[in-house]
């Protein structure tokens, strides 16, 4: 089940909210367990066979966390923690990386190891990282004595379960014990409807629209030219942003119905003025996790510049691999690690760059790096990038001649070599660069105004109309 589905919007979500508040008012002890059951149903709706995996994972990690919390012998604590982390990483590696490893071992050694062909369980990357953080913090004595039902809800809470954000136990578990005392909060419901509607619009009207161009372009890189390359790459740059940020908006909105505040995961990352700023704005919960549980434990920036550079590269190598088993993800992570190393070197010299040039350089780097993230093969990525920076003078002349020529929509939708898709991209990116993001709208003092209500209603109606007429499609980050 996904957020952008008729079943979720008009059945699962309203029924779950209704039953939850009935239980909270009359049988409060059952409200949290009910949310756990509802969340597990939400997860199993996609592929029931993997329901035992998340249940067993949550139960085992809860027991390990409790054990390292109460154990007095430091040697035993370290051993149990190490085994717990290894168990989580091994489970993730089995389902996500085994076939990639076997494939490359076969290439290097000439062996013929058969792939396992295991279907990637939804959300395994997200709930694995969440639970590793729980184990580490339990070892440090930073976890309170929460009930098993609270822990299961922390892992499985359906608004954030499938594609994040990567929530931290300190952000979520205290809310579960206090939210049941708040009752129905009409202000939260109003905000939830608003941001959910914005997210639905982002996903179905913007992300899916440009996703069609991106898919066609990446499937036919050999047949597109300069303008087609820009249309393809910019379309994916837009699709990924609005797909993932749209999902996060819907997650925040759905959680607000239960008086739960999920952490913000996006803060207009394409407005970033440097690569460090970008990572403070893009997938913020992943950035925080990598900083707290990878970069800082390795030493962070507390030692020499060489060690700091190594730590950055390793951290973003892990960040790249976390997204998927493929050399494109590895290279994407390394590129961002190198960019951060270069940024540190640049700032250490005291040199300055205008904010406009800084924004342009940052956006262009992020945009080009996304090509490796999306391309089916490394060779395809390099071919597309070559076309990005190899303008065809005849193409440019045709563009100038045809800018004001009337056109029909259907041929344009199929013609990636024209400038029209690029113009669409520029239009959407222009708003992305200068407009308010959904969180700013949500926190605006005009939240209760008729204008905002009308915007929410329009976004919801347009989104549902698009949903009715569209094919079923998952969110991009379901694949990661």
From TrEMBL:
GO biological-process terms attached to the record: alginic acid biosynthetic process
GO molecular function term, any single one: acyltransferase activity
Q: What is its main location?
A: membrane
Q: Does the keyword Metal-binding apply?
A: no
Task: Tell me where in or outside the cell this protein is found.
Answer: Cell inner membrane; Cell membrane
Question: Is ATP-binding among this UniProt entry's keywords?
Answer: no
InterPro entries, sorted: Ac/AlaTfrase_AlgI/DltB, AlgI, MB_O-acyltransferase, MBOAT_fam
Transmembrane region positions?
6-23, 30-46, 52-68, 80-98, 118-136, 148-167, 312-335, 356-373, 412-434, 446-468
Q: Annotated pathway, please?
A: Glycan biosynthesis; alginate biosynthesis
Annotated membrane topology is: Multi-pass membrane protein
For this protein, the Enzyme Commission number is 2.3.1.-
Organism's domain of life?
A: Bacteria
Question: Which EC class is the enzyme in?
Answer: transferase
- Alphabetical UniProt keywords: Acyltransferase, Alginate biosynthesis, Cell inner membrane, Cell membrane, Membrane, Transferase, Transmembrane, Transmembrane helix
The GO cellular component terms are: plasma membrane
PANTHER family documented for this protein: ACYLTRANSFERASE, TEICHOIC ACID D-ALANYLTRANSFERASE
Tell me which family the UniProt entry assigns to this protein. Belongs to the membrane-bound acyltransferase family.
Q: What is this protein called?
A: Probable alginate O-acetylase
Please report the organism this UniProt entry assigns to the protein: Reinekea blandensis MED297
């Amino acid at each position: 089940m996904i957020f952008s589905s008729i079943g979720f919007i008009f059945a699962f979500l309203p029924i779950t909210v209704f039953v939850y508040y009935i239980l909270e008012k009359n049988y409060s002890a059952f409200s949290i367990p009910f949310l756990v059951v509802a969340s597990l149903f939400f997860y199993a709706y996609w592929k029931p066979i993997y329901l035992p995996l998340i249940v067993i994972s949550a139960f085992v990690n809860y027991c390990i966390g409790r054990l390292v919390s109460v154990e007095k012998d430091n040697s035993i604590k370290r051993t149990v923690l190490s085994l717990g982390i290894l168990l989580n990483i091994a489970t993730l590696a089995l389902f996500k990386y085994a076939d990639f490893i076997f494939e490359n071992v076969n290439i290097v050694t000439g062996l013929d190891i058969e792939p396992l062909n295991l279907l990637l369980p939804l959300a395994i990357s997200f709930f694995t990282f969440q639970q590793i953080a729980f184990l580490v913090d339990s070892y440090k004595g930073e976890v309170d004595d929460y009930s098993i039902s609270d822990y299961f809800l922390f892992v499985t809470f359906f608004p954030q379960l499938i594609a994040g954000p990567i929530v931290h136990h300190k952000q979520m578990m205290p809310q579960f014990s206090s939210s049941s005392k708040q009752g129905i909060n009409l202000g939260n419901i109003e905000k939830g409807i608003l941001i959910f509607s914005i997210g639905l619009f982002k996903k179905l009207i913007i992300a899916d629209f440009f996703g069609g161009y991106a898919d066609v372009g990446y499937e036919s890189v050999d047949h597109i030219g300069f303008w087609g390359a820009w249309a393809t790459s910019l379309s994916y740059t837009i699709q990924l942003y609005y797909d993932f940020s749209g999902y996060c908006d819907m997650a925040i909105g759905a959680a607000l119905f239960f008086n739960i505040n999920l952490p913000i995961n996006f803060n207009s990352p394409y407005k970033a003025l440097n690569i460090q700023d970008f990572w403070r704005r893009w997938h913020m919960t992943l950035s925080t996790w990598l900083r707290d549980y990878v970069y800082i434990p390795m030493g962070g920036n507390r030692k020499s510049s060489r060690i700091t550079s190594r730590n950055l590269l390793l951290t973003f190598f892990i960040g790249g691999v976390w997204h998927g088993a493929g050399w494109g993800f590895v290279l994407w992570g390394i590129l961002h690690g190198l960019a951060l190393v270069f940024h540190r070197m640049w700032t250490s010299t005291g040199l300055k760059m205008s904010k406009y040039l800084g924004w342009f350089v940052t956006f262009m780097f992020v945009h080009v790096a996304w090509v490796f993230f999306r391309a089916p093969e490394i060779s395809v990525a390099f071919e597309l990038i070559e076309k990005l920076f190899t303008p065809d003078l005849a193409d440019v002349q045709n563009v100038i001649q045809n800018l004001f020529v009337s056109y029909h929509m259907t041929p344009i939708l199929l013609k990636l070599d024209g400038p029209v898709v690029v113009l669409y991209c520029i239009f959407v990116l222009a708003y992305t660069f200068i407009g308010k993001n959904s969180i700013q709208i949500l926190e605006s003092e005009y939240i209760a105004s008729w204008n905002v209500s009308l915007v929410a209603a329009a976004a919801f109606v347009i989104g549902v109309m698009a949903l009715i007429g569209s094919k079923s499609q998952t969110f991009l980050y379901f694949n990661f």
